Amino acid sequence: xxxxxxxxxxxxxxxxxxxxxxxxxxxxxxxxxxxxxxxxxxxxxxxxxxxxxxxxxxxxxxxxxxxxxxxxxxxxxxxxxxxxxxxxxxxxxxxxxxxxxxxxxxxxxxxxxxxxxxxxxxxxxxxxxxxxxxxxxxxxxxxxxxxxxxxxxxxxxxxxxxxxxxxxxxxxxxxxxxxxxxxxxxxxxxxxxxxxxxxxxxxxxx
Length: 206
Hints:
The protein has a single domain (2-199), classed as Rossmann fold (3-Layer(aba) Sandwich), CATH 3.40.50. The chain is 26% helix and 28% strand. It has helices at 12-21, 32-37, 49-58, 61-70, 80-84, 188-199; strands spanning 2-5, 27-29, 40-43, 75-78, 88-89, 103-107, 118-123, 141-146, 148-152, 158-163, 167-174, 177-180. The strands form three sheets. Strands 2-1-3-4-12-11-10 form a seven-stranded mixed β-sheet. A three-stranded mixed β-sheet has the order 5-6-9. It has a two-stranded antiparallel ribbon with strand order 7-8. Helix 1 links the parallel strand 1 and strand 2.
């Protein structure tokens, strides 16, 4: 069973539909027990970092997420869901993220001919190729919508990067924690393959 965490942060329906296209029956929920019993958990999201953290904490989901990860349940953060896994964001000074992974979220710098938000298709390169990208070649295109980007403290967890005037850490993997700044559910055949690959990740017992 796949649980999609519902914390009123948007983008849930498109993730749900993509999984249903793959023949899955995801459950959109904020119920602790359902999330903890899931075989896989997805944290999607669009919106502001600070508002999202307030909602996660208000719904009592911060500790649930940390417990899911402590159980080695395959976990996928998408877009804002990636950013929340880290320690802090320039978007919301003074508000701590989940801090599950080390690093920070920075504002994409203003540059000539580079529109913000970064919205559209960009290609990926793999500093080290993670399990999400099995059977997906380098320079494959995926869909981004964001104004802030990840700078991970541990470069060894970065499995995909993209260039938008600066080098952006586009995907990470650490143990059974996976996250993408881009939207696999909106990335056509490549995105569907990424979600298929996530479905194949085995749960590692402690």
